[in-house]
């Protein structure tokens, strides 16, 4: 068994199986850890992920160690798949370490339909979903409105959707934070961001965002599967998107402000993309309030897409969505920064937990897990590629100690979008998925399909295997695509 791993001048030491440590040297404030098998570590080392992880350890207040998940890959400053828990009193908050797409996340809706109920209707369903749910770059949403409405959404989250008939009470009970972030302040979000958001409420956007109708192929834990309402051959719907142009603009606005006003701290960091505002500073407080508002916007965005999906299913199957039991299983963010209380070296501390391409994975008994799941643990949703399975996990019993209550967020990219378009032809990928795996894909362009081809991603089975082995996210169920729409 290899005890060290070397990559371009960075040496990792094996702590135990699937845990690799980059020792603290030079100006690093803490060590860094990578949670991966040797096969995944080999892939992670092919880009700047390890360098970015090392850079992240320079952020003031970084606690215990900066962490890279099994699906890690190069990002903006901070690696995608990164977790950084930073002291909320003496540390900082770093927008780039949370991501441009604030509250990019996933929600899964279960149904009482079986795969047999769908067979023969796949093309009708994928066409109807593509027609009804806005996707792609630019404007277009289920709701196109004004800035006043955007401000209400920013402050109230899914409560706004409930009041306006786009949600039912049960939807809020099965969403992280019940779909509303406390401390959101719409006045801290720029007019430019609000104007970008007002015509995008209820839209997928582009890139790796999608809506996928899936069938449950495997149940690994019958007791937890039952608690989650999942069974073999069941049809579920997975929605993956975020805060669209509003979130992107909010991140950009605050990065520029922080670069100007906290240049002293910036000059101490090895990468300006890690720009951070000191905890307690005016900009830190303003960014946190704006980020919480953008989080609310993203939850409403996914809620409206789910609402429209319910309408499409009702039309295609000629029955009410209620009779098909189209209920929200869970909605969880994977680009987010939250003030949380964690035990570090035996001491309870308030930390800004930056999760960038990492999913919250709280264990059974944690008070922030919805009451209906508290006995078994928080649902964790890990999407794979169009040609591979996705997974439902539950927060593992070791997640708080190993990863600040976090696990992976997907398969993780192996190649850039540019390289993907050179390697794959979208129409060919589409045809092969339909012919060989009966997966029906509808997208705005062939280029989008090429960018998201199955070969572009790491092996999601291996990512989940490592998560399960470490006890940070335990396998509950596996799903496989039936229909997929994307921008």
UniProtKB/TrEMBL annotation:
Q: To which protein family does this belong?
A: Belongs to the RtcB family.
What keywords are assigned to this protein? Answer: GTP-binding, Ligase, Manganese, Metal-binding, Nucleotide-binding
Recorded hits in Pfam families, A to Z, give: RtcB
Task: List the catalytic activities from the record.
Answer: a 3'-end 2',3'-cyclophospho-ribonucleotide-RNA + a 5'-end dephospho-ribonucleoside-RNA + GTP + H2O = a ribonucleotidyl-ribonucleotide-RNA + GMP + diphosphate + H(+); a 3'-end 3'-phospho-ribonucleotide-RNA + a 5'-end dephospho-ribonucleoside-RNA + GTP = a ribonucleotidyl-ribonucleotide-RNA + GMP + diphosphate
The protein's job, in short, is: Essential for tRNA splicing and maturation. Acts by directly joining spliced tRNA halves to mature-sized tRNAs. Joins RNA with 2',3'-cyclic-phosphate or 3'-phosphate ends to RNA with 5'-hydroxy ends.
Q: Which GO terms describe its molecular function?
A: GTP binding; metal ion binding; RNA ligase (ATP) activity; RNA ligase (GTP) activity
| Coiled coil feature spans | none
Signal sequence range: none
* Name the UniProt record assigns to this protein: tRNA-splicing ligase RtcB
Q: What is its EC number?
A: 6.5.1.-
Q: A GO BP term, please?
A: tRNA splicing, via endonucleolytic cleavage and ligation
Record-listed Mn(2+) 1 binding positions: 101, 209
**Active site location:** 409
Ligand binding (Mn(2+) 2): 240, 334
> Which EC class does it fall in?
ligase
Q: Which organism is it from?
A: Natronosalvus hydrolyticus
Summary of subunit composition and partner proteins: Monomer.
